[in-house]
Design a protein that fits this description.
The complex is a heterodimer. Helices cover about 40% and strands about 25% of the residues of chain A. Chain A is α/β, with parallel strands linked by helices. In chain A, the strands form two sheets. Chain A has a six-stranded mixed β-sheet, sandwiched between helices. Chain A has a four-stranded antiparallel β-sheet with strand order 2-1-4-5. Chain A is globular, with a radius of gyration of 18 Å. In chain B, α3 links the parallel β1 and β2. In chain B, α7 runs antiparallel to α9. Chain B folds into two domains: about 260 residues, no CATH class; about 110 residues, D-Maltodextrin-Binding Protein, domain 2, CATH 3.40.190. The longest helix of chain B is centred in the middle third of the chain and has 38 residues. The two termini of chain B are about 30 Å apart. Chains A and B meet through α2, β6, α3 and α5 of A and α1 and α8 of B.
Chain lengths: ~240, ~400
């Protein structure tokens, strides 16, 4: 479970996140939806603890990320905005490097990597250097890297960016599997269809605030839009975000 | 504790491996620093030695046109050991011959030389040479000196014949006392050498220092790394350790090449007893070893503040010059080895290596202070770097 409680963050004089509270539950995919610059990435970065909130707190499975950083992080897998793999290392080496930094033993890391290679279907290029990988191949490896220590919670920042339709479909299938395993998945996106198709719960952010929070159908009903996209525009319009 | 060391070693292993696979940067780091420096040094020294040899050892080779007009001068030059070549050229012809490279220096004796010489009015001589050529410049200088000596000899004879003491023409006599020892001259040369050694040390770790900091940020891998449950100090420590490893490799290569180069450069001719024996090279390695973590920490520290690979390269190019400053300062003020100077890194290594090359005794305390101050400064920089890595601005 991932909880944001009254998160607040200012860069210089610019408030990026004003007051964000929401809960992403286990066994659900929660989508953080918002336009570019709405504060999604800042929110996520506070949740996985690379940014310090000016106010409020972030909790992973009830553990405060600022208080017990290492313990909280051990419960968390992160796929940041850029996949950020090391080009001169093979897919396996990339994953096993992070496994070692998560204090996993060598043998455990190896078998876990093999297991993920089967689950995420990248056995055929597991020992090739990442340098020449396509974006779709990279996202699989980066996802495996985030999952190597078998975390109960997963944060993904715009995971579908730069993926083609096939890769998006396979990513969706992977995330649905992970959800079925009872994990808590939090992803950010600015693509409506993606969120509508994938998420059990949607948190809409605009200008650093939570504008709406609920299941896609509840949001559609509350704002009376035919589709989630229309509702999204209405939510943004109500908040004065669309000019 | 084991977990802490585990993370540090894990980062070290990965950084070492990744840099090893980057063939192009590896080649440039391990070729440019450790090989280029010593070889350039060897060429420079050989050239210097050859040039100074021209002054003294080789006979003066001079072409003379119009020898018949001045048999006295010609026999004087021959008596001074000059190897004369007699040519038949006018002043203009001599100029053309030099411009076309046929002749180097031509002394032209005009037809009116003998009559004016007999009448005791200044007899003209033309020395044709290209002063922009450093080789012929020396020949012309030596010729001029010989002719001046010949002229003053003749002048003294003339005065004596007229009953005047030649001493009257010498109201003052100057005696120059040059205390420069050949070893003293060689100190500047050694200064170059020690700088090349320190340069090679830094070059060996330069790319890794950039790649592990600004490179990680630029590739976008830093954020994932920073979200792991690993203390930032361990990340920084592992990276600096890997940088140190490559710097040691570079230092070893550099010293090996220097040992080879010194076999071909006759430094005894500069009055240096020194030949870089393998034992001395080992001592050099030991002296430079404390400089390795300092250099690695300094480069990593500076690179941590830069946003891109390119920016890091710009700043680190300046860092490469930092160790020259104390050394340049030392040669300008010709500093001698003093214990208080052992507190200054790079200068202390320079002074210790110089002492070794000159076969001077080294105080163990000096070695200790040199190593201690470098390592302490390195630790300080590592702590500062780790502290910077804990800031959120690290993400850029």
């Amino acid at each position: 479970m991932i909880e944001a409680v009254g998160l607040h963050k200012t860069f210089g004089a610019v408030p990026a996140v004003v007051d964000v509270s929401f809960v992403a539950r286990d066994g659900e995919i929660t989508g953080l939806l918002g336009a570019n610059g709405a504060g999604k990435s800042t929110c996520l970065r506070m949740l996985y603890g690379v940014l310090t909130p000016d106010g409020g707190s972030a909790r992973i499975d009830g553990i405060d990320i600022r208080g017990e950083t290492s313990t909280a992080r051990a419960h968390l897998g992160v796929l940041p905005h850029a996949t950020g793999l090391y080009g001169n290392l093979s897919a396996r080496e990339n994953i096993e490097y992070f496994a070692a930094l998560q204090s996993m033993g060598r043998r455990a890391a190896r078998s876990r990597t093999d297991q993920l290679a089967v689950a995420l279907d990248f056995r055929e290029f597991i020992d090739r250097r990442v340098k020449g990988f396509s974006q779709g191949q990279r996202i699989k490896v980066a996802l495996a890297r985030a999952l190597v220590h078998d975390p109960g919670n997963l944060i993904l920042d715009e995971p579908t960016n730069g993926l083609d339709v096939m890769a998006i479909r396979s990513l969706r299938a992977m995330l649905t599997d992970l959800k079925a395993q009872g994990r808590c998945i939090l992803l950010s996106s600015h693509v409506m269809q993606e969120v509508a198709a994938l998420c059990d719960r949607v948190v809409i952010i605009g200008q650093g605030r939570v504008l709406a929070d609920g299941t896609p159908s509840a949001i559609r009903e509350a704002y009376g839009g035919e589709s989630l996209e229309e509702s999204f525009l209405r939510v943004q319009g109500d908040a004065g975000c669309v000019r | 504790m084991r977990a802490l060391m585990g993370a540090l070693l894990c980062v070290f292993r990965k950084e070492f491996l990744e840099n090893l696979r980057d063939r192009r940067t590896l080649l440039s780091a391990l070729l440019f620093g450790p090989l280029f420096g010593p070889i350039l040094f060897g060429l420079m020294i050989s050239r210097m030695l050859n040039q100074s040899a021209v002054d003294t050892d080789e006979p003066l080779r001079l072409s003379i046109a119009g020898r018949a007009h001045a048999p006295g001068l010609v026999s004087y030059l021959e008596s001074q050991g000059a190897q004369l070549k007699f040519v038949d050229l006018s002043a203009d012809g001599a100029r053309l011959a030099i411009q076309s490279g046929v002749e180097q220096v031509v002394l032209v004796i005009p037809g009116d030389y003998s009559s004016r010489f007999a009448a005791a009015v200044p007899a003209p001589l033309q020395l044709v040479a290209d002063s922009s050529d450093s080789q012929t410049h020396k020949i012309a200088d030596r010729t001029r000196m010989l002719i001046t000596a010949y002229g003053s000899g003749i002048a003294q004879l003339r005065l004596q014949v007229r009953g005047v003491s030649p001493l009257l023409t010498m109201p003052v006599a100057i005696n120059e006392v040059d205390v420069a020892t050949p070893t003293g001259r060689a100190v500047m040369v050694i200064g170059f050498m020690t700088y090349f050694v320190l340069f090679a040390v830094l070059m060996g770790g330069l790319y890794l220092a950039i790649d592990g900091t600004a490179g990680e940020r630029e590739r976008g891998s830093l954020e994932a790394l920073l979200s792991l449950p690993v203390a930032r100090g361990n990340l920084v420590g592992g990276k600096i350790l890997a940088t140190c490893a490559y710097m040691c490799i570079s230092l070893t290569l550099c010293l090996l090449v220097f040992v080879c180069v010194f076999r071909f450069v006759p430094l005894e001719r500069l009055g240096m007893s020194a030949n870089l024996r393998p034992g001395t090279a080992l001592a050099f390695f030991a002296i430079c070893l404390p400089f390795v973590p300092l250099g690695a920490a300094l480069m990593t520290f500076v690179a941590s503040f830069t946003r891109s690979y390119r920016e890091a390269q710009t700043y680190l190019a300046a860092v490469l010059l930092v160790p020259t400053m104390p050394i340049a300062f030392a040669s300008i003020y010709s500093l001698k080895t003093k214990s208080v100077l052992m507190f200054i890194p790079s200068l202390s290594q320079h002074l210790l290596m110089t002492s070794l090359l000159k076969d001077e005794l080294i105080a163990p305390l000096d070695v200790l202070v040199s190593a201690g101050s470098s390592v302490l400064l390195a630790l300080l920089l590592i702590v500062l770097t780790a502290r910077h890595w804990r800031r959120e601005t690290m993400l850029g």
